[in-house]
Amino acid sequence: MTIGGVLLAAGAGSRMGLPKALVVGADGQPWLARGVRVLSEAGCEPTVVVLGARAEEAEDLLPGDVPVTVGIAEDWQSGLSASLRRGLEVAATFDDVDAVVITLVDLPDLGADAIRRVASVPPGDARSALRQAHYGGRPGHPVLIGRDHWLPLRRSLTGDSGAKKYLGAHGAESVDCSDLGSGRDVDSPRELR
């Protein structure tokens, strides 16, 4: 069973004042590099990073010690759906990948343990799996999407919404990760402090 990772990092980060793919954390580590390393540490391979706004600058922040495939969401301005669609398209080029873990670049307290928990499925179930982390009963990331769902999910995506409707309509399994982090995303400089 092969589980890949998809890190979505294409947006302009209007509330942040710059693309979140360019944010460097208080620890001096770029969020982009951290996100790739966390997916790698959790065993997700291959790892796909979706970039858009200021993509060339963001590519310079990718870690050199972890293999990454970059997908550019040319239509990133149309919202989250463009990034997710592009990530699934790139993942589909890897014939041996049974499922992908989807996560976002702006989750500074997401750790490998939460990714492993969400990705923990029996080998025979990976291609049909649909699982989502929950924190205090609230849905969040990461999300595991089995290969059987990639094409119908891509076809359902529109605007600035991700997989939420699809996950709900197809009975995604809730995976409690409350003991492993907050699940909060960081949208503004004020939230960084």
Automatic annotation (TrEMBL):
InterPro entries: MobA-like_NTP_Trfase, Nucleotide-diphossugar_trans. Gene3D superfamilies: Spore Coat Polysaccharide Biosynthesis Protein SpsA, Chain A. One of its GO terms (molecular function) is nucleotidyltransferase activity. Pfam families: NTP_transf_3. It comes from the Bacteria. Residues 5-170 form the MobA-like NTP transferase domain. This is MobA-like NTP transferase domain-containing protein.
